[in-house]
Specification:
Elements: E1 7-9, H1 17-30, E2 36-40, H2 45-53, E3 59-64, H3 79-87, E4 91-94, H4 101-110, H5 115-124, H6 128-142, E5 152-156, E6 164-169, E7 180-188
Parallel strand pairs: 1-7, 2-3, 2-5, 3-4
Antiparallel strand pairs: 5-6, 6-7
Helix pairs in contact: 1-2, 5-6
Length: 190
């Protein structure tokens, strides 16, 4: 048995990036097995803050929106930011969202929902950031950027900045229901 500390923020969607990074740093002080941190940062700003603040030797991977998410042929992260992140040793991944992707094109045209919409909405019952943490871990695992079967920290949020961090064991998307959430480091209460 172990007693753990969880940081709760007031509400979803606020930028709690600095406080969340402190909570992640605190967790890293007592976790020797974490080698990877995923962060969802469409612009790269939160990923850069994370890299500048983390004291431990871990691999940080930034997951941004896919090209075309905000507009045809548009990237939400600039080439300059990708270059900045690379200088800090951070890879940036831009790929199709695991819980929407091409299925969103079908539902946008014909209506209805995809089974993955149900998964995403179920995770959002905890917080939007929990859904994002699961989604980016599937995306990064499918891209071969993180090992499956090894605990990682995944960080997400809603809108600007990040507000959620979890420890989970990622899987490839074909094994979605084998993903394991181990700990919530921080999340919004409402």
């Amino acid at each position: 048995m172990a007693r753990k500390f969880i940081t709760y923020f007031d509400e979803q969607g606020n930028d709690y990036t600095d406080e969340l990074i402190k909570a992640v740093n605190d967790k890293l002080e007592v976790c020797d097995n974490i080698r990877y941190i995923l962060i969802a940062s469409s612009s790269g700003e939160s990923a850069l803050k994370l890299a500048e603040a983390i004291d431990k030797d871990v691999t940080i991977i930034n997951v941004s929106h896919n090209v075309g998410f905000s507009g045809d042929n548009e990237s939400d992260i600039s080439d300059e930011m990708i270059e900045k992140l690379e200088k800090e040793g951070i890879k940036t991944y831009q790929g199709l969202h695991a819980f929407s992707g091409a299925a969103r094109g079908v539902t946008n045209k014909y209506g209805g929902y995809s089974p993955l919409d149900v998964v995403a909405d179920t995770l959002r019952m905890f917080s939007h950031g929990v859904k994002v943490a699961a989604e980016i871990s599937l995306m990064a695992a499918d891209a071969g950027l993180i090992p499956v079967g090894e605990e990682i920290i995944a960080i997400g949020g809603r809108a600007h900045g990040v507000d959620t961090a979890v420890i989970l064991t990622p899987v490839n998307s074909k094994n979605l229901f084998n993903m394991q959430f181990h700990e919530i480091i921080a999340m919004p209460r409402d």
